[in-house]
Amino acid sequence: VEVIETNIVIVGGGLSGLAAAVQAAENGDDFILLEAQATLGGNGQGVEGTFAVDSRFQKEQNIQVDRSIIMQEELGKTQWVADGLLYKDLCDNSAANIEWLVDQCGCELEGTIDNYPFGVSVGSVDTFHWWKDGAAYVGYVMPMQQKLRDAAADIRLNNRALEFSYDENGAINGVYAIDAFGDLVQYQAKAVIVATGGFSCNQEMVSTYLPSQARLGPLTVNSMGEGHQLCKAIGGVYTHMDMEANRMSDLAQVTVWGYFSPQVQVTPQGRRFIKEDQSHDSPDKAVELGLGFWWTIFDDQAINSSQKWNVEMNMKSNADRLVGPCNSLDELAAAMDVPADTLKATFETYDAMVAAGEDTEFGKKLFLQSLSAPYYAMKHFPYRYKTHGGMKITTDSQLTDKDGNPIPNVYCAGSTVADSGSDLSPNAGSGL
Predict the structure, then answer these.
(1) What gap in Å lies between CA 298 and CA 119, rounded to an integer?
(2) Which of 36-40, 83-87, 120-124 has the lowest mean pLDDT?
(3) How far apart are CA 15 and CA 18, in angstroms?
(4) In which element (H, E) is residue 416 found?
């Protein structure tokens, strides 16, 4: 077995692993980053933005966010929040985290949401910061990769960690991994950071801990729970594994169109069933109602919006899910294969609420506006997204045993941890 020595081994090159690696490079630490896939970024490549409270970017746009209200709202979402202390730490440091990413790492933001009607609500919308081009790969992953290249960091792709290694005294001193050539290598280190992601693609683990979601397909494609299993094998403890994984459309970026343009979402029968100024609620409701799919109906207001590139890209890359342009609701109904009378009644009710200035059905506030021909529609399917359960850690990220004692030399970050959020946005701060 080849033995390679370093100070720190980071297992996983997603959002949290990248942040940990860049910070280690800035500190002048000797480290090796192991990534099981052929590229960096992990499942974070498809993320549109990240969470922050009281950042200077919000203040520049006169967005005032009350941290105590955010804390109160988020901590009330018990199905999402695993540890209030960890979430408070994330919230308190989120502005510093994102400013570090931009100022020190060269990450690029497109800003917070354009045309946001201040005072409508608090929560994820006004704490959301868009990456450049609405994609973490462009705004986050590429700059972080460049930062690591500039530091001549030792990054080893196609290296899959198998298990921890021990010294003669029984203390953990690294990991064994299969390298890109299929050879077994021992990476010896003083500390191991496990940042391998969630377990949404591990059907056995999902069936065990989230049986109600076992029949949903996974949206993230490489979340195999490998870090969970690595850590459990050395006495680590799972926590909050039964927290429901939030669901997402398989067209994840399309679900955020309601943040920047008007749209109407309807069932396969053509009935509106949800407010459209959100992203995760639609697939949750679709599953609750037993819908196999649902539709997002939009018009030229989306195509010509601030996220024009996003809309056009998804229309082009998902042409098999797109209907339109249609010059009337009758034509649209025929293309969607829904009853025309039902769809027209849905729009009649919706337009009346727009005229009255209040969505009395579902409480939509963002872009409560009418649509006009030509109409388009995109078909969605509900998928299982990001799992929330993971390893129990101390507030400084050390893995703990069943008695709450830190396991020396092992740290966990990102979705390997029982997290404190509904999506991937906390992971960069966790890794940092």
Answers:
(1) 25
(2) 120-124
(3) 5
(4) none
> pTM for the full model?
0.83
Give, in order, the Cα–Cα distances in Å from 206 to each of 106, 202, 293, 369, 419: 37, 6, 22, 40, 17
Residue from 302, 190, 191 nearest 254 by CA: 302
Cα separation values, 363 from 196, 359, 418, Å: 38, 5, 31
- Give the containing element (helix H, strand E) for 348: helix 340-356
Measured CA to CA in angstroms, residue 183 lies from 81, 186, 395 at distances of 40, 10, 36
Spacing of C-alpha 197 from chain mean position: 11
Helical (H) or strand (E) element with 406:
strand 406-412
With contact defined as beta carbons under 8 Å apart, do 410 and 399 qualify?
A: yes
Instruction: Classify residue 121 as exposed, middle or buried by CB count within 10 Å of its CB (0-12, 13-18, 19+).
Output: middle
Check residue 277 and give its pLDDT.
Answer: 81
| Dihedral class, residue 108 (left if φ above 0, else alpha if ψ from -120 to 50, else beta) | beta
Q: Is 121 helix (H, G, I), strand (E, B) or coil?
A: coil
DSSP 3-state assignment of 417?
strand
CB 36 within 8 A of CB 412: no
Q: Is the pLDDT of residue 348 over 80?
A: yes
Do 399 and 391 contact (CB within 8 A), yes or no? Answer: yes
CB 292 within 8 A of CB 381: yes
Position 211 scores a pLDDT of: 94
What Cα–Cα distance (Å) separates residue 69 from each residue in 59, 75, 124, 147, 425? Answer: 17, 10, 12, 35, 19
